Amino acid sequence: MSYSPPAPINRPGHVPVPFWRDIRFIQIFLQIAFLVVVIVAGYTLLHNLVTNLEKSNLPIDFGMFERPFGTQISEGQMDFDPGSSSNIEAMRAGLQNTMRVVVIGLIGATILGVLVGIGRLSTNFLVRQISMVYVEIFRNTPLLVQLYFIYRGMLRLTLPENLKDSYKLPGPIYINRRAVNFPLIEGTDTAELFYIALGIGLTLGIALWWWRLRVQEQTGRPAYTLRFFLGAVLIFSGAGWLLSGGPFSVDYPRLERFNFVGGDRLSAEYLTLTLGLILYTAAFIADIVRAGIQAVPYGQIEAARAQGFSSGQTLRLIVLPQALRLIIPPLGNQYLNLAKNSSLGIAIGFFDVYNVANEISNQTGQSVVIFATMMAIYLSISLFISLVMNTVNYLMRTRTR
Amino acid sequence: MKKTSRLFVLALALALVAVMAFPAASPQPAQAQGGSVLDQVLARGSLNCGVNGQLPGFGYLDTNTSEWSGLDVDFCRAIAAALFGEVTPENLIFVPTTAQERFTAVQTGTVDVLLRNATWTLQRDTELGLDLGPVVFYDGQGLMVRADSGATTAADLGGASICTLTGTTTALNISELMGSLGLEYELVVFEQASQTIAALEEGRCDALTSDRSQLASLRTTAADPGAYIILDDVISKEPLAPAYIETDAKWANVVSWVVYATIQAEEFGITQADVDSFLTSEDPAIQRFLGVGENVSGTLLGLDNDFVVNVIRAVGNYGEIYERNVGPNTPLALDRGINNLWTNGGLIYAPAWR
User: Residue B31 above 70 pLDDT?
Assistant: First the structure.
């Protein structure tokens, strides 16, 4: 694309190139023309929108964010008061629920995806086949269908209907169609003492770890880093526990007339959405991980083996660090997909920020404002994830001198 | 040379974009272009009627026979008959809408009129840019529970999980009621009515709240309708009415007077079967109503003068519509109650046909 215009020819009698055929003019003219078109189109659309909204008696009104939301949000923030909470507070509660799903979803999908991705390259026939079947099923069916399948097919129709028959796990944890109810550990008044002691223990533990590494480097003696670290943490936290006289109290779930009361719960809707997003996204991540690992030249593995690395060490020390550089950029795309797909929660009645926004839009009619806000919120989440992934990508880049 | 020709193509493309963008620079809202919705619909030759689709008795699409049925659906047919003389699959298009997208459909003109068991509220009548009315069914919000749950009133539902629909007044009403009773509860909000009844059947919820007519309707879709009871509590007023775009008085008149026509027909005792025998009636009030002779009726609305005859031929009078869809002989088995004619002690009343 390197094009340099020919030098102007000043021979007498030569007719100069007219300006509309002059490449320098055309280039600048086209850029200006494009800018004008973009501005005019943008202005026209916006003007059209505002005029038509006003004609339909629906002027854009940001004041509706301050109005009461009115509907109970039972997901997550149990103390949400529908009577006094405004629409903006409802959005915040919804955003909190979205973030609960996205954060756990990202962690879960990454762990499962890496395991399955490695599993697809396993020498074990069964592991390899199971990983393949998993990836093919979850990658090739729509997420919405999977969510319905998990929600209705797996959770609703297989778990006990009567709460009295809930599966009971040690804890006690009760599992039924509506939720997983589990004991909630709450700090007592003296819990701060314990936290301080734990903090000191952790700080000391890290310092000791660092010191033992230095000792190992200088003397070659075994470092025993973990033993020193755990020792410091246990001694201080144990002392803190005794001093505070038991820093925690446990709130156990108990069955009342209609539902379990006390403790904490993860609703069926939350579990479905989180599990669905993890399973779906992990299938894509698995393939990315597999591709990344396979892209590491086989000579590297042979060299590692020749040096006496075990297969686990080869994977951990030789293959994965190199594969990671190839994995991270497409991995970021999958993270973005997961965050955006969380808005499918509305299909199964999960009260995320999208569901709340829908509700507000319905009650106030301000769909333009609401959906612009929605786009801004999801854009912020996506840009934040991109920022983190770009930073990781930068840190992981091949250092060249 | 190749370079310049490519630039030329690019310039051409840009010019095209510009040409396409500029006519929109002077925005013309739908109102100004085609006048009233009435004129648009007549010019188009078809009516887009927003309906439910999943609610037996009100708006239901039978997936086996592809037949639409229901009280709201019949009012769509009545309007189409008033506009076009008769109802054909070509001139009446049913647009199924969810609770949360229904008003946007009206605002954007996707549907000309919405007959989707929508409650007439102050806020919808003003802020949403809609006009509503007249009421085609007087409803109230209720609660449905399992018969074996032992609950007999809303106050028994402390700690319960309650299912409802998103984007409805019912979600607001139940939140308000439980708040005023000072009861803890879990609200589970679904997008589709069919999901709410499934949630009750499958034990996700202890109670389902909606308009009482809807509860009766949803109960018919349950595997064992006898296992559920509707509590006596009526926790809100839910007058269900057609909705259409605000600031279009001409169209509002058409929708309103078609509904009134079915009501007036019942008052006169004119039915689908014998409407033709009334055409020769000597009664001046009936002559005026049916638009026969020199009387002016439909032309005042911009319709055929005898549009009432077409409406009654298509769907019958209000009582017939009621009995066919939600009355005692249907699975919903709803008594006329306050939905009876004013002359029988109900609230169904049409203004004077004069």
Answer: no
Check if A26 contacts B (Cβ < 8 Å): yes
Same domain, B155 and B102: no
Read off the pLDDT band of B96 (50, 70, 90).
very high
Task: Tell whether B208 and B60 lie within a shared domain.
Answer: no
Interface check A3 vs B, CB under 8 A: yes
Residue of A nearest to B16 (CA): A37
Q: Do A258 and B18 touch (CB under 8 A)?
A: no
Sheet with A264-267: strands ordered across? A167-169, A173-175, A179-182, A264-267
What integer pLDDT is reported at residue B5 of this predicted model?
A: 55
Q: What CATH number did the domain enclosing B57 receive?
A: 3.40.190.10
Whether residue B305 is predicted with pLDDT greater than 80 in this model: the reply is: yes
Same domain, B90 and B59: yes
Q: Which tokens belong to A218?
A: 């200088």
CA–CA separation, A44 vs A249, rounded Å?
62
Give mean pLDDT, residues A173-201.
Answer: 84
* Token output for B43: 């010019």
Residues B124 and B248 in one domain: yes
Is pLDDT at B32 greater than 50 in this prediction? no
Last residue of a domain, one of B204, B238, B272: B238
So what's the pLDDT on residue A78? Answer: 55
Q: Above pLDDT 70, what percent of chain A?
A: 95
Task: Assess whether B251 and B181 both reside in one domain.
Answer: no
**Contact indicator for A386, A400 with CB cutoff of 8 Å:** no
Number of structural domains found in chain B = 2
Q: Both B132 and B251 in a single domain? A: yes
**Is position B97 within any domain?**
yes
Q: What are phi and psi of B186, to 5 degrees?
A: -115, 125
pLDDT at B119 over 60: yes
Query: CA-based Rg of chain B, rounded to a whole angstrom?
Result: 24
Q: Are residues B90 and B60 in the same domain?
A: yes
**Which of B149, B164, B186 should we substitute to test contact with A (largest number of A Cβ atoms within 10 Å)?**
B186
Picking from B187, B162, B236, B196, the residue whose alpha carbon sits closest to that of residue B54 is B196
With respect to residue B19, please indicate whether it lies within any of the assigned structural domains. Answer: no
Q: Mean pLDDT across the stretch B322-326?
A: 94
Using alpha carbons, select from A349, A351, A274 the residue that is nearest to residue A74. Answer: A351
pLDDT at B29 over 70: no
pLDDT at A275 over 50: yes
Tell me the C-alpha distance between B223 and B226, whole Å: 9
Q: Does pLDDT of B221 surpass 50?
A: yes
Q: How far is CA B219 from CA A258, A364, B145, B167, B328, in A?
A: 21, 31, 10, 21, 15
**Looking at residue B337, what DSSP letter applies?**
G
Choose between A17 and B162: higher pLDDT: B162
Tokens of A175: 């599992």
How far off is chain B from A10, nearest CA to CA, in Å? 21
CA pair distance A323, A343, nearest whole angstrom: 31
Domain match, B271 and B325 both: yes
pLDDT of residue A138: 95
Domain assignment present for B15: no
Domain A91-143+268-395 has CATH 1.10.3720.10: yes
Question: Which residues of chain B make contact with A55, given a CB cutoff of 8 A?
Answer: 29, 31, 247
List chain A domain ranges: 91-143+268-395, 191-244
Q: Which of A75, A70, A67, A68 is nearest to A99 (CA)?
A: A75
Residues B100, A52: C-beta atoms closer than 8 Å: no
Q: What is the pLDDT of residues A73-103, one digit of tens each?
A: 887 765 677 777 888 888 988 999 999 999 9
- Domain enclosing residue B118, as ranges: 34-136+241-344
Amino acid identity, residue A214? R
Cα–Cα distance, B298 to B308 (Å, whole number)? 8
Find the mean pLDDT for residues A257-267.
Answer: 84
Q: Please give the Cα distance from B242 to B212 (Å, whole number).
A: 18
